[in-house]
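Handoff note, outgoing to incoming analyst
You'll be picking up this chain. Sequence as last confirmed:
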Amino acid sequence: MIDPPFTSADVEAVFNAIPEPERKGLLKLRALIFKTAAQSPEVGAIEETLKWGQPSYLTPETKSGSTIRLGMPKTGGFAIYTHCQTTLISDFQNLFPDDFAYEGNRAIHFDNEGAIPAPKLQMYIRAALTYHLKT
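Most recent structure output, in case you need it:
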């Protein structure tokens, strides 16, 4: 998987402050975001920054995508978040209703990094990174 170095000391510090095993899971999600973007030329370069104190991934070059955030929900584990006013979660939940733990229309939760089904999740990430190309 593509695991680029951090370009932001602030983002790296947030990852370093996350306890194991959540950090390992979030780093797997981070790598999956960069891998998916690299396989999707229409996305362009990914910007990794902090939004609401969480690592966030944007498509500033092409503006093709909706922001993806990574974090730890209060209920434990780790999660991937997208904007709650998009159809990303509902569309994905229609495809895979029982394969993931969903939080309303904003997140997919994971209990451990071994529970990340990369091929299916790449579909979700690609949909988020190209969300504005559909409209």
